[in-house]
Amino acid sequence: MVVGASARAAIGGCRRLITSRLVPTQASLSVSFQCRQMSMDSRSISEKLRNSGLLRTQGLIAGKWVDAYDKKTIKVNNPATGDIVADVACMGGKETNDAIASAYEAFTSWSKVTAAERSKILRRWYELLIAHKEELGQLITLEQGKPLKEAIGEIAYGASFIEYFSEEAKRVYGDIIPATLSDRRLLVLKQPVGVVGAITPWNFPLAMITRKVGPALASGCTVVVKPSELTPLTALAAAELALQAGVPPGAVNVVMGNAPEIGDALLSSPQVRKITFTGSTAVGKKLMAGAAPTVKRVSLELGGNAPSIVFDDADLDVAVKGTLAAKFRNSGQTCVCANRVLVQDGIYDKFAEAFAEAVQKLEVGDGFKEGVTQGPLINEAAVQKVETFVQDAVSKGAKVLLGGKRHSLGMTFYEPTVIGDVKSDMLMSKEEIFGPVAPLIRFKTEEDAIRIANDTNAGLAAYIFTNNVQRTWRVSEALEYGLVGVNEGIISTEVAPFGGVKQSGLGREGSKYGMDEYLEIKYVCLGDMNRK
Ligand code: SIN
Fold first, then answer.
1. What pLDDT does residue 38 have?
2. Using a 6 Å cutoff on CB, does residue 333 contact ligand 1?
């Protein structure tokens, strides 16, 4: 099946904000970055990474590192500096078909490896990821921009999925069902789905891969991973460590480059039995449609529009700290970031003042600089989107309480921003901002808050701040969201299910529920069981 032109544009490989680019050519990159010679810092860090064997630039097919067949490459940039960090193989349909063939072949043996053995290999992978957390963190900061401490935190978070699913591998139980006829025995087997196509975003270059590949390998599936072409280096380093851990050739393949061609190949192959994707809702819908002709399973983790609801009875410090964490993690570039801060009348002014004061203390800069908590946005398109949203809000009567413009550091840095008096007709209330802008929306009653919070097609994460236990239950139950944080702004963990309702996606990742996404249920009926 061939994805239509608009799907091609949308798949683009880039998360949420970048929908026009098909292949990241030098020309298109120069729109986003003033590419330049590498600064000493970037150079010495990438030199160190190269020496450690973790700076890989080729794709991985059937256990071998390979160039693009036509030798094309794409440039990976450091968004904080514009430095070109590496030239990476720009692969397409041909390489993807070979990767699928290798995954298909590897499935025959990997699916038969005992759960105990798969578990040991995954455990070794986890240990290697942790042992290399500093270098992997540096890679994330280099290609994605998030502060080094946060990047190393992502390595721990990403590795936790491999550890968790190394344990879950051993717990894939079937069932025996009481039979309705005396000569029968009814069994349920759980078996791996098959070859999985995993398409992952740039905002979590490791964790969004391990949250998919961990349960896939644990259940006996094999995988073709397509990381974002903006951040392929972390994916390639993680794949190198998977090989070192003993993941057999072909069980994990990595191809990147021409996203539309790769997407088409994954969707059209009858050998690929599942597509798992984290990214924009628009692309998720195209993938769902593209998976229909071959009736593939799909898991989609799509965009959000998270409300953070601060009730009058909240503890002010807890609400400020929680909302700050939920909003400014990864400079606002997560799908669970608070997108709208709903604040009740009685606490609005106090909250707005305390929140703006806390936001003012955030330090913006190159993620390698000590003390920096806010890195750059991923590219120029991301900054332009934020600018458009802020202009729209201000033109409709919202007030900039803090920030509201590009940062004096230039590049793609944007000032941490707080906007007051935001209303539901403004773009930033309706769409995912994916940047460091916190819109404050005033509400009167609990019913108002629930109505405003649910007035969106998205339904991924929501946060509430209250000290009333009855309200906690009532509101948690009424919110049309897949995840709810109460008095807490960072709630993701490998042990809990992650996923959305409404147009925020299908399926769950992480936790025991995350395994089910990679398992087929087979019913086996044994007849003639009374014969001696
Ligand atoms: C995402 O932004 O897609 C993932 C965030 C998380 O895992 O907490």
1. 53
2. no
Residue ranges for the chain with pLDDT beneath 50: 1-37
How far apart are the C-alpha atoms of 441 and 429, rounded to whole Å? Answer: 9
Is residue 509 among the annotated active site residues? no
**What is the DSSP code string of 397-464?**
T-EEEE--SB-TT-TT-B--EEEES--TTSHHHHS---SSEEEEEEE-SHHHHHHHHH-SS--SEEEE
Closest C-alpha to ligand 1, atom 3: 335
Choose which residue among 14, 16, 154, 208 to substitute to test ligand 1 binding: the one with the highest number of ligand atoms within 8 A of its C-beta: 208
Tell me the per-residue pLDDT of 230-273, one tens digit each, with 9 for 90 and over: 999 999 999 999 999 999 999 999 999 999 999 999 999 999 99
Q: How far away, in angstroms, is 72 Cα from ligand 1 center?
A: 31
Q: Out of 301, 432, 446, 517, which one is annotated catalytic?
A: 301
The per-residue pLDDT for 191 is 98
Task: Tell me, yes or no, if 221 is annotated catalytic.
Answer: no
Q: Is the CB of 204 under 6 A from ligand 1?
A: yes
Can you tell me the distance from the alpha carbon of 210 to that of 205, in angstroms, rounded to the nearest whole number? Answer: 9
Neighbours of 134 (CB within 10 A): 14
Cβ proximity of 392 and 427 under 8 Å: yes
Average pLDDT of every residue of the chain: 93
**Ligand 1 pocket: which of 154, 155, 329, 335 to mutate (most atoms within 8 A of CB):** 335
- Predicted pLDDT at 12: 37
